[in-house]
Every structure is written in C-alpha cells, then in structure tokens.
C-alpha cells in the first residue's frame, strides 16, 4: 500500500534506538525525508553508517537550548516540518514513592513529559505551513493504568495523554493532527531492565516478574518496535487525515500493569 508520504519531512526524537530507530526507518522506506536526534552518540554513529540518508543531531530533549539547535538543524536539512514524533523517553527509577530521589523524579518528568513540550512548541509554527501536518506523542500503557513502583514514569505518561488531548483541540483549526501511541511491553533492553529492577525490588526471580507483567495481558508476547512504527507512519499519512486526539494502544490488550 502506498501511504502517499514521499517527501514528507519528519523529525523523530530518540531516533537511533528501539522504537525511534524502527520509526525513522519505516518513514524512510516510504520515501519520507527523516531527521533524528538522540543522546546516544554511538547509536547515532551506527545510524550514520547504516542509514546515511537519515540526517541527525545530538540532542537531549530536556535541554531547551539543545532543542533550539535541533530545530535549526531540522530547518537546514529538511527546509520545514510535516510530522513530529515525540519519542524520546527514559524508564525512570523503580521503587516506592518514598524511596525515589527527587532528582530521579525530576529527570524522568523533564525528559518524558517536558521534553515533548520543548519540541512541540518549536514544531508547531513549522507544522502550520504543512499541507499534511501531524504530531505523534509516545505515551505508554502506564499512561492508562496504575504502574506500581514506577510512579514518575506513570505520571509522565499520563501527562502525555493530557498534553495530546489539549494540543489536538488547540491545533485542529490549523489542520494539525495530534495523537498518542500507548505501547505495551515492547521488546528491547528497556523492558528487560525494568523487569530486572522490579524483580530485585520485590525479591522475586526475573521469570516470575515477567509472568506477573504479562498477567494482565491477553496476548502474552512482547510488542515488536516495527509494529509501533507502522502505526505511527500510518497516522502521519493522508489516510489518517481525520484521526486526531486519539490514544492508540499497541499492547496485546493490556488490562492491568503489575
């Protein structure tokens, strides 16, 4: 199926690994022009070798000066913007609320929620000039369900839902669609680290913790980042021109988090 996005100008934050990398490559495979940013310079170097057509910047989205430089790069490389994928995020600390340091709380919120604001505020003036403008914000099933021992992450991801809903209502008059993606348990190093940390906190085995994590999931398989990437690309296409303000779950039917 031709998604009719050849030449679409796309920025994917945290685009050198995981969901971001899969998304950048999915857009590029459809003929889009893609720019990525990341804090992982080694991963960026690997992407420069494997995907030379995808331009890149080093950027921590919680740093507003760095984000400003990122958008200067986007303007120079793409000449405008049609789609922002707010993907950057960290897992944050694992522990009970009275055990979490204020520094860990602040860092998680700064990247997972405020980082999306930092990018959106600079993207919107560019998106207003697009004939097919969209923003896709990465939330999580933790933005829909309680997630014990992960309060900073859950708070940030619930915040992303509110941010998405507000922007959809605010930007609809300009033809800018804004949606949120809510992944479930996504295969990769992050979820393995989360499982290991929760297993240690609860003094159970890695296998038992994995079973607990899947207890409230109908399809007990890790989500492939490519599945998420394909949904994001569709939402940025003209075929999704009336889809906005939605929380799109890709999660194997997650009913609860443990």
Could you explain how this protein is built, in words?
This protein is of the alpha/beta class and 258 residues long. It has one domain: NAD(P)-binding Rossmann-like Domain (Rossmann fold, 3-Layer(aba) Sandwich). 46% of the residues lie in helices and 14% in strands. It has 8 helices and 7 strands, in the order βαβαβαβαβαβαααβ. The protein has a 7-stranded parallel sheet, sandwiched between helices. Strand 2, helix 2 (41-50) and strand 3 (55-58) form a beta-alpha-beta unit. The longest helix has 26 residues, at 102-127. The chain is globular. The mean pLDDT is 96.
Residue ranges: pLDDT <50 for 5 or more in a row?
Answer: none
Q: Helix-strand pattern, N to C? A: EHEHEHEHEHEHHHE
CATH fold descriptor: Rossmann fold
Sequence of strands across the biggest β-sheet: 3-2-1-4-5-6-7
CATH homologous superfamily annotation: NAD(P)-binding Rossmann-like Domain
Q: Which of globular, elongated, flat, extended, rod-shaped describes the shape?
A: globular
What distance separates the N and C termini? 38 Å
The proportion of residues forming helix, as a percent range, comes to 40-55%
Indicate the CATH architecture: 3-Layer(aba) Sandwich
Q: Tally of extended strands?
A: 7
